């Protein structure tokens, strides 16, 4: 398993109850923390949020739907002012220092030239 950014165990199992049915998910510790923060902000239990996600998900799995929901949730909350306060846009997205930490993809190509591919269903 790849290391997590926190250095802790990569995946942690947790149980949630969706529409009265208990199921488990394996998420990184950072993802569990983000999900719990969303629940607190929305004043909903983790079970209620996961039930809402499950009701809206397509053919994919619950864990994937939860991760996608969290990205979209925080993406919707992101503002230019917030990015500036966090120091984003400096070429060091992880806060590990100046341009020396700049991400590269495909043997040295700058990250901004990355083209994303998706699977066609």
Automatic annotation (TrEMBL):
Coiled-coil regions listed in the entry: none
Gene3D superfamilies attached to this UniProt entry: protein bp1543 (1.10.3990.20)
Superkingdom per UniProt: Bacteria
According to the entry, every stretch annotated as the Ribbon-helix-helix domain falls at 15-74
- Compositional bias segments (type: Gly residues): 88-101
Q: Which InterPro entries match?
A: RHH_dom, RHH_sf
Region annotated Disordered, chain positions? 80-121
Compositionally biased region (Acidic residues):
112-121
One Pfam family name is RHH_4
Q: What is this protein called?
A: Ribbon-helix-helix domain-containing protein
- What organism does the UniProt record list as the source? Skermanella aerolata
């Amino acid at each position: 398993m790849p290391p997590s950014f926190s250095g802790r165990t990569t995946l942690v199992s947790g149980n949630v109850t969706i529409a009265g049915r208990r199921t488990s998910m394996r998420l990184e510790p950072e993802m569990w923390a983000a999900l719990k923060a969303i629940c607190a902000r929305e004043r909903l239990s983790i079970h209620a949020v996961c039930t809402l996600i499950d009701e809206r998900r397509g053919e994919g799995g619950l864990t994937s739907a939860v991760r996608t929901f969290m990205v979209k949730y925080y993406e919707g909350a992101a503002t230019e002012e917030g990015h500036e306060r966090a120091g984003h846009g400096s070429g060091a997205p992880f806060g590990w220092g100046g341009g020396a930490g700049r991400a590269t993809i495909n043997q040295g190509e700058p990250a901004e030239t990355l083209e994303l591919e998706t699977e066609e269903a």
